[in-house]
Amino acid sequence: MPLAHDFVNELKDKIDLYDLVSPYVQLKKSGSSWVGLSPFSQEKTPSFYVHPDKGFFKCFSSGEKGDAITFVQKMENLSFIEAIEFLSDRFNIPMRFEEGSSSTPRAKSINSELYALHETVADWFSNNLRIEGEESRVALDYWTKERRFSMETAQEFKIGYAPVDRFALAKFLRKKNVPPEILEKSGLFNKNLQQGEFVSRFCGRLIIPIREKIGRVCGFTARKLSLTPEWGDKKAPKYVNSPETNIFKKGELLFNHDLANKEIDEKSDFLLVEGQLDAIRCWAEGFKTVVAPQGTAFGDIQANLLRKSNPRGVTCLLDGDSAGQKAAFEYIPILFKAGLGSRFSTLPEGSDPDQILLDQGTSGLQELLDQGISSIEYAFRYKLQDIENPTPSDRKKISEFIFKSLSGVDSFVEREDHLQELSKVLSVSIENVKRDFKQFSQNQRPFTAGRDRARSTQEASSSRSVQLTTAEDDLLFVLLHDDRVASPLAHIFDPSWLDLEIPSGRVLAKILAETKADGPVTPNRMEEFIDDDDERTAFQNHLYQDVKEIDEESFLQLANECLHALFIRSSKQKERSLLKHLSNPDNAPENTQNLRQELIQLRKSISAPPPTDLFP
After folding, report:
1. Least confident piece of the model among 73-87, 227-241, 381-395, 492-506
2. What crossing angle do the helices spanning 322-337 and 392-406 adopt, rounded to 10°?
3. Please, which of 152, 154, 318, 525 could form a disulfide with 324 given CB 3.0 to 4.6 Å?
4. Cα–Cα distance for residue pair 451/46, rounded to 1 Å
5. Strand partners for 57
6. pLDDT in tens, 314-347
7. What local confidence, expressed as pLDDT, does residue 315 receive?
8. 227: which DSSP letter?
9. End residue of a domain, out of 369, 386, 403
10. Is the domain of 144 the same as that of 269?
11. Rounded Cα distance, 302 and 289, in Å
12. Residue 381 and residue 307 share a domain
């Protein structure tokens, strides 16, 4: 069923762009607008502007711009229809459809269905924890007595319980009429059916919902309990997690990021811990900026997610065993590359934040955090922990590890700060450290020069391609910013002049046809004629261009130049086509004569083109 023709504009009118963008980007007031670090590129100086009164955003570092729908498409990797569904659900604005069309509403997108399914299942798991029964009592005792969490915390994180019955979830969802193809893609069930029924991945386990950056449930972690069934000779694992799905990609998620992001500011650090229950305990005890990776997966994407919130830095609180120390060491280049200042606090071996908070309270954990050391000092301690008398060679190897990590830092200021700290840790002058770093960088250059040249060439090519525009692009730009142009243009313009292979050409053709039939239309109505994402991108790129420095006469001059260029281009294309037909030896004499006459007339029109001025 098609959307009501005015629903898209209604949706955008009802959405405050600040409310939409702020969960993704830390915004600060700047006049009537808001500004923050770009969510599309790495930067240190904010260049991403949100204009709620005008309903659009513009990113000067990446060139991205658009409205609420465009923003959601780019951030969530959604199609246009998926973005409409997302915004409709997020802001509780019911979708409206054209009257008189099919009585069956259009099916929702797969991702939208999966998110809705996970919310439903999370509610079901949560309710199972609270109903009276032997199974739920075991789960409740584990949560409240063994782990000593409150039911208020369980409610806040929607902690739940998955029954031992492996068919229980499927039976519940069957009553909800969830399509089998959605169940198959959800990650909630094992691959193979049993007795013709879907078999739950989670049985007899405590359930911890996992939410993505704006708070939607996208997966689950299931903790083993005393009543968790053992299948065959293989012992049931302590934790079972959702597999990778359309909406659950563990390398792109951080547990509790949705809540921590609301608490972070430029004066506070994210607290990075290893486990989800550790994160829940920290949150419950007042450490509100805590996050945790999914398992040990922490990479560039997750570091950049943290960077976009513009924190002061990241404090890593990892286990004191060898695995925890190794993980911390591997975080250093990742955090450097993301431009995140970092400190490392090591837990006593065999302990975790949960236990410390239970035994020593918040002061015990805070004392541990206060003893944290810089990433550079941590690297030295980690690499030299088994060496009593480190040699210059040992120290050089660690320095080169730091140098290699710093090579991914774009900011010269940040790099200088890190080198200053390195000189203090080494007890070496900053001049010598800089000299070694320069030599290291030069030694690395032969291995990267070719790649760097290729990247530079690619970037230059990309930059040129962005700057190059067609006559269709320029004419669409003028039409969207000068309301004098549309009516006269529609009546003198020949649609055959347009290249309909490019998005701007198709958008122009639609707008001019509508204008000729019903008169001028507003930009809001123009968007109703757009059929695909390429056309919408072209339309919005021109609509949200800054035109403050362009005077009225320049608009008209550009429009006239575009018309002339389109006429000449179209004529030349026809000339080439005629010449090709004339070269065909199988042409009948009469046909050849007609083609020659047509070519003569065409060449006359090219040498003396008809007036194409909108305003002579």
Report:
1. 381-395
2. 50
3. 318
4. 29
5. 50, 66
6. 999 988 888 888 888 899 999 998 889 999 998 9
7. 96
8. T
9. 386
10. no
11. 15
12. yes
pLDDT at residue 158, rounded to an integer? 97
Kind and range of the H or E run holding 270: strand 269-272
- Between the alpha carbon of residue 407 and those of residues 393, 415, 425, 442, the distances in Å are 21, 9, 19, 11
SS3 state of residue 260: helix
- Whether 409 maps to a domain, the answer reads yes
Identify the CA nearest to 23 among candidates 43, 9, 39: 39
339, 411 in Cβ contact below 8 A?
A: yes
CB neighbour burial string for 543-556, b if at least 16 within 10 angstroms, e if fewer: bbeeeeeeeeeebb
Contact 482, 556 (CB under 8 A): yes
Q: Provide the whole-model pTM.
A: 0.71
Task: Encode burial over 135-174: b for 16+ CB neighbours within 10 A, e otherwise.
Answer: bbebbbebbeeebebeeebbeebbbbbbbbebbebbebbe
Please, are residues 14 and 88 in contact by the beta-carbon 8 Å criterion?
no
Q: Distance between CA atoms of 466 and 320, rounded to whole angstroms?
A: 50
- pLDDT band for position 106 (50/70/90)? very low
Segment 444-458 shows an average pLDDT of 43
- Name the DSSP letter for residue 200: B
Q: Which is more confidently placed, 448 or 490?
A: 490
Q: Is position 190 within any domain?
A: yes
Q: Which residues of 33-49 are buried (b: 16+ CB within 10 A; e: fewer)?
A: bbbbbbbeebbeebbbb
Q: Would you say residue 98 lies in a domain?
A: no
* Dist CA 146 CA 254 (whole Å): 26
Whole-angstrom distance, CA of residue 119 vs CA of residue 188: 12
From CA 570, how far away is CA 499, in angstroms rounded?
9
